[in-house]
């Protein structure tokens, strides 16, 4: 970007709002003609490398540094006083939790949160790259935000999360959406105060995307969404490289937090009165493999089990690394809940092989048997992809039969979506869309049937419900989840929100249960 173009880009921030409607379109046009190639080169030359499977697979050997010394830069303290922020979150729990960290960082700077885009001074889109439709949603939202920026040139709009780790996305924003002020990656979250400062006072779009991760930053402030349930990261990244998946590139290599840091965080949450923690990682079963100690997820769960917090969950598991030690520890029960989310992706060993999942149908079913033997009442849920390249009707039938054999009580089901840079994206996406849709429909029908059957078994039973608040549909009704993650709606006093209560189930639906509270005395295990 040359000096003149930079000035033009900056004018948009300085213009009087009343001029902006007439002037801005031509300004934007000029900005659109800026030398985005030069900008792209500048930002990516030293910090960014596009997804490269060969290189990424070698990264395991690199060192991870853990930093405990985060502090708000002096010159940023109070910069958000009297101002508001809004973060839109797309995608998985990891993103939800990253949003809590960014909200913590912004709150530390003095900002307050708002749900209203019109009163926000900073808007961040925390994006998801897992499938094309997730990306399309974000580009749609970027389009919606343009008029806001035109009306309020001081508004800072940022794009972060997994999409910003993709070169093609950054290029597209630089070329087509130059009113965006800030783009930063998943490894740059702790730099938000500094980046915000540059975006507010600098002259051009700020882009900071590190492809080399390495570090773990402890002690970042967090503004958690509620006071009842909390997310706790146990590890970052993924080294599994399933052939369809973009995550190992957007989230980087596997890095485990130290057990003592995790345990301290869970203890702290328990002391604050939280009732449930969910331990988070893209592949939690690989926890500890990168540490220099002989310590895995089973060992960690065995310690967390002893903390006085009523409910502990974990997600997401990979069947390949789900070991006997973990099954043995989970079987001890207590606060370790017997709901296991175990993504299978396909029921065909051949499709699993080309997905590079590193297990067969038989091995998966063996693991399920092992889990059921140790935990006879365990609830299993899963993720499944239909329409992977070359998936035949027979292979899809194998998925249906596996779903029945395991008896999944719910599942997240997806149509395969090619992701640029992944091995599968180089193969022909040759299952026609009508066939993919039909397979998805058949699969969902089966899952719905199994869910409804599982729900029906609860009729007449009394279950323990962690009451989260008023039901979304009816403020006179309370809702919460059972230990096995079933949504329950029932009437009761608002004073029990945040407590675990007994509820007798009177009516089962496909995805939720209706019930009546059995006793008023709050019970916390
Ligand atoms: N296409 C469709 N679904 C995908 N998933 C991951 N990558 C893709 C893709 N390219 C699904 C997997 C994973 C879940 C989080 O998203 O089922 O478990
Ligand atoms: Fe993606 Fe999960 Fe496979 Fe990792 S284990 S590559 S996050 S699907």
Q: What do these coordinates show?
A:
The structure is a single chain. This protein is α/β, with parallel strands linked by helices. The protein has three domains: about 5-210, Rossmann fold (3-Layer(aba) Sandwich), CATH 3.40.50.12160; about 220-455, tm_1862 like domain (pyruvate-formate lyase- activating enzyme, Alpha-Beta Horseshoe), CATH 3.80.30.20; about 460-515, Nucleic acid-binding proteins (OB fold (Dihydrolipoamide Acetyltransferase, E2P), Beta Barrel), CATH 2.40.50.140. It is about 35% helix and about 20% strand. It has helices at about 5-15, 15-30, 35-45, 55-60, 95-110, 130-150, 165-175, 190-200, 245-250, 260-270, 295-305, 325-330, 350-355, 360-375, 395-405, 435-455; strands at about 65, 85-90, 110-115, 120-125, 155-160, 180-185, 205-210, 215, 230-235, 235, 255, 275-280, 310-315, 340, 380-385, 410-415, 460-470, 480, 485-490, 500-510, 510-515. The chain has a six-stranded parallel beta sheet, with helices on both faces. The chain has a five-stranded mixed β-barrel with strand order 17-18-19-21-20. Strand 18 (about 480) and strand 19 (about 485-490) form a beta hairpin. Helix 1 (about 5-15) runs antiparallel to helix 2 (about 15-30) and helix 3 (about 35-45) packs antiparallel against helix 7. It is globular, with a radius of gyration of 24 Å. The chain starts with a helix and ends in an 8-residue tail after the last strand. The relative contact order is 0.08. Mean pLDDT is about 90; it is low at about 1-35. Bound molecules: 5'-deoxyadenosine and iron/sulfur cluster.
């Amino acid at each position: 970007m040359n000096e003149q173009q930079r000035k033009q880009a900056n004018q948009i921030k300085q213009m009087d709002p009343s001029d902006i409607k007439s002037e801005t379109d031509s300004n934007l046009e000029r900005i659109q003609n800026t030398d985005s190639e030069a900008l792209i080169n500048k930002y990516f030359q030293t910090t960014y490398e596009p997804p490269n499977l060969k290189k990424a697979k070698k990264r395991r050997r690199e060192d991870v540094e853990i930093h405990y010394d985060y502090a708000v830069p002096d010159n940023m303290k109070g910069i958000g006083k009297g101002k508001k922020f809004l973060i839109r979150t797309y995608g998985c729990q990891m993103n939800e939790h990253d949003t809590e960290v960014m909200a913590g960082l912004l709150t530390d700077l003095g900002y307050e949160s708002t749900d209203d885009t019109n009163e926000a001074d900073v808007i961040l889109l925390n994006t998801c790259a897992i499938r094309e439709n997730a990306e399309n949603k974000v580009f749609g939202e970027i389009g919606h935000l343009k008029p806001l920026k035109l009306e309020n040139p001081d508004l800072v709009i940022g794009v972060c999360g997994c999409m910003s780790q993709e070169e093609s996305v950054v290029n597209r924003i630089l070329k087509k959406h130059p009113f965006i002020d800030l783009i930063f990656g998943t490894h740059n979250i702790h730099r938000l105060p500094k980046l915000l400062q540059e975006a507010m006072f600098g002259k051009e779009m700020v882009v900071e995307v590190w492809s080399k991760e390495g570090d773990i930053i402890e002690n970042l402030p967090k503004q958690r969404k509620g006071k009842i349930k909390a997310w706790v990261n146990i590890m970052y990244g993924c080294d599994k490289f399933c052939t369809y998946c973009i995550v190992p590139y957007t989230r980087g290599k596997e890095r485990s937090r130290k057990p003592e840091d995790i345990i301290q965080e869970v203890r702290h949450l328990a002391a604050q009165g939280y009732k449930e923690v969910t331990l988070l990682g893209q592949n939690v079963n690989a926890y500890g493999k990168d540490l220099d100690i002989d310590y895995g997820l089973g060992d960690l769960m065995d310690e967390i089990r002893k903390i006085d917090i009523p409910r502990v969950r974990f997600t997401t598991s990979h069947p390949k690394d789900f070991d006997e030690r973990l099954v043995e520890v989970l079987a001890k029960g207590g606060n370790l809940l017997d709901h296991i989310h175990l993504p299978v992706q396909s029921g065909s060993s051949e499709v699993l092989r080309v997905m590079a999942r590193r297990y067969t149908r038989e091995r998966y079913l063996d693991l399920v048997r092992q889990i059921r033997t140790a935990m006879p009442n365990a609830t299993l849920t899963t993720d499944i992809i239909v329409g992977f390249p070359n998936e035949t009707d027979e292979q899809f039938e194998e998925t249906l039969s596996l779903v029945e054999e395991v008896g999944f009580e719910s599942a997240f089901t997806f149509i395969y979506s090619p992701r640029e840079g992944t091995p599968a994206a180089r193969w022909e996406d040759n299952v026609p869309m009508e066939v993919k849709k039909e397979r998805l429909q058949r699969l969902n029908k089966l899952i719905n049937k199994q869910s409804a059957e599982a729900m029906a078994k609860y009729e007449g039973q009394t279950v323990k419900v962690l009451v989260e608040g008023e039901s979304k549909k009816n403020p006179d009704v309370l809702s919460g989840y059972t230990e096995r993650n079933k949504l329950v709606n029932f009437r009761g006093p608002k004073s029990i929100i945040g407590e675990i209560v007994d509820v007798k189930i009177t009516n089962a639906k496909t995805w939720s249960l209706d019930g009546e509270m059995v006793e008023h005395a709050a019970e916390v295990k």
